[in-house]
Structures are given as structure tokens and as C-alpha cells.
Amino acid sequence: MAKETDYTAKILTELRKDKNFYAFKYVQSGFSRIGVPDLIICYKGLFIGAEVKMVGNDFSDQQVYNIMLINKAGGCGIGLWVAPKSKVSQTQYAVDIHPETKEGRETLEWVSLPDLIHSIKDLKI
């Protein structure tokens, strides 16, 4: 079964296909700040910090805190949800612009990976 890091790599590969994105995977070390989002993205001047989570997992308090700091600083901190492929459906993705709250998660719009990239392009501060 695929892990969050596998899906993070797929999202990163898809982002890099579009030359308007600058994106990289943040890798933590022993001296890193805790809770920094998985993906650091810049799209046409908009700073985006994206934390990737598989359905069934949740954001840590530190991840939520860092996302809120990004939003407060004028960037866009988001959660990217992944619903892995099953026997009846393909892998689906969703953008969560309010990962600090669990409310509204049941109404997230689930899309394909290319459509996820379009959703990221449509983000506004």
C-alpha cells in the first residue's frame, strides 16, 4: 500500500509539469522546525504551504499552527487530502483551505490529480 510520501511525490511531479510553479518537498532533520508543511510551493507570487494527509490521518497541532502562521503572514496554508485508489475508484484528492477545523471535511470536492493542480491555481489569499 502506498504511503503519504508516495502521494506527496506524485503531487510534486504533477506541480513541476507546470512552469508557473516552483515547488519542493520539505525534508525535516534533527534541527528543523516541527510541523513545517510537506510541500513548499510558489505559484505566480503566491506562497503556499501544503500538508499532505491520507484520509484517516489528521493534522498535528504543530502542523495546524504552522499553516495558521503562513495564512497570517499573507501566504496560503492548506491541507491536501488523499483518498487512495480502491477496487471501485481511482485515487482522489481534495484541497482543504481550513485544515485547522474538522468541520466541512465531508463536503470537500474530490478530484483527480490534474484537477487538484487546477484547484491549487485557483487559490486566493
Number of discrete domains: 1
Measured distance between first and last alpha carbons? 35 Å
Q: Report the order of strands and helices.
A: HEEEHEEH
Question: Helical stretch count?
Answer: 3
Number of strands: 5
**Biggest beta sheet summary:** 5 strands, mixed
Give me the CATH architecture, please. Answer: 3-Layer(aba) Sandwich
Q: Please mark out the parts with pLDDT under 50 across 5 or more consecutive residues, or reply none.
A: none
What does this structure look like?
This protein has 125 residues and is of the alpha+beta class. It has helices at residues 4-16, 61-72, 113-121, and strands spanning 21-25, 39-43, 46-54, 76-83, 92-96. It has one domain (4-121): Trna Endonuclease, Chain: A, domain 1 (3-Layer(aba) Sandwich). It has a five-stranded mixed sheet with strand order 1-2-3-4-5. The mean pLDDT is 90.
Features:
single chain; 125 residues; alpha+beta; Trna Endonuclease, Chain: A, domain 1; 26% strand
Write the topology of this structure.
Blueprint: H1 4-16, E1 21-25, E2 39-43, E3 46-54, H2 61-72, E4 76-83, E5 92-96, H3 113-121
Parallel strand pairs: 3-4
Antiparallel strand pairs: 1-2, 2-3, 4-5
